[in-house]
Amino acid sequence: MTATVYVLNGPNLNLLGLREPHLYGSTTLAEVEQLCRRVAGDLGLECDFRQTNHEGVMVDWVQEAREKAAAVVINPAGLSFRSIPLLDALKTLEQPIAEVHITNIHRRDSLYQHSLVSLAATGVICGFGAFGYELAIRALAQRLAAPAPAH
Predict the structure, then answer these.
(1) What's the angle, vertex CA 74, arms to CA 73 and CA 78, rounded to 5?
(2) Whole-angstrom Cα distance, residue 126 to residue 24?
(3) Is 22 exposed, middle or buried (0-12, 13-18, 19+ CB in 10 A)?
(4) CB burial of residue 21 (10 Å; 0-12, 13-18, 19+)
(5) How far from the centroid of its chain's Cα atoms is residue 98's Cα?
(6) 18 pLDDT band (50/70/90 cuts)?
């Protein structure tokens, strides 16, 4: 059975390419999905790509990932900065988690600089636009292929 990477996208990412292109670029979410599916396939992984504007749906997907995903890429968007329920759900995962942000959140207004999700993430990639998703999938594939550490 092929390992599946969940790629979860939060609020307003369905508007990529339209919303604030000076910040987020012109790449659409459909193009990001094509990129993720191609990269995952090249690495022998399945890609389950999703987007929601609702916090509870995102929490449900993270809980589902506990049983069905080998790893999670998450761009929580605005949920990054205020969602304790999302953080708590992510903390229950034993799978590696790559947090992705299209912009460099550390160069943005202070409201966007501290991601709660980072407290649960294995690693964070920000500021590389849509290419950050590819970097995240490649990093997770490498993590999945590495032998488990001896106890």
Answers:
(1) 165
(2) 12
(3) exposed
(4) exposed
(5) 6
(6) confident
The domain spans of the chain are: 4-145
Query: Token pair of 150, please?
Result: 């001896």
- Residues serving a catalytic function are 24, 101
Q: Which two tokens stand for residue 9?
A: 């996208």
User: Token pair 């992510």 is at which residue?
Assistant: 90
Write down the pTM of the prediction.
0.92
**Secondary-structure class of domain 4-145 per CATH:** alpha beta
Token representation of residue 47: 């890609």
Q: Report whether 116 contacts 82 (CB < 8 A).
A: yes
Quote the tokens at residue 133.
């998703």
pLDDT recorded at residue 113: 60
Nearest alpha carbon to residue 137 among 83, 81, 82, 69: 69
Asked if pLDDT for residue 1 goes beyond 80, the answer is no
